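Example 3.2
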Amino acid sequence: MSNLPYPWLWNLLFFIMLAFLGLSTAVVDTLTIITCIVDSSESFRRYATHITGAVCLALFLGSVTQCTNAGIYMVQLMDDCNGGIALGVGILLEFLLIAHYYDIAEALGSFSTNPLEAPGWGRMRHDLQAAFGPPRNMLTTFVGKSGYLFWALWKVTPLMGGAVLLYEMSTPPSLAYKDYEFPALANWLGYLYGNLTLLVVIGFFVFNVVRMGPKAFRVHPTHPSYIKMSHPARPPPPRRLDDDDDQLELLLPDRPIDS
């Protein structure tokens, strides 16, 4: 920027951009925490102001340590350990639930009732065909959005991702900043902090299962899926087409007119 005309102006604009970027990130993260706490219980909404102050104070006290002489080492520790394993485990579980459990559940159910009519490919490929349409030719049958290749990749990805994740967890790197090497205790604390979000999710899962038992796996009554299952919508009556609509049907045969 020093080679541009009016370098002081570009330096000022760059500083303002970084300042607003940091402020927007801090505001969004803080409001996310506050909203999750306040919406978790009806009684918390009456103390929304106090909860906001407590969250801001806790975040301030936690960030003050970054301004000390040891702050750069803590930043380096969090930068190296933050979220890698937790994010990998979360993505791996999503892949397993969708590509294996959800996909094979319908196939196993159909096979148990009538083995000759079992779909064999499960729900996922059927859902993809419902969303993107059936394959139009031999090429899209194998490499299309609902083709066999896409389905096979979803099957193989969890296995490969799990192997990489296990290797990463079994060989934690030794952390260091410049010439200083962190002790073993700092490594454990860093990975504990970085994967704290995963531990919180697992803790809430165990808590809800213990408290609610089998009801924890049912669809919540306020969820849109429950409303659709309990109150199925009636199909709209057919609309009578006029001459203009008939002409549109001839011009756009692949795009039926919405009722």
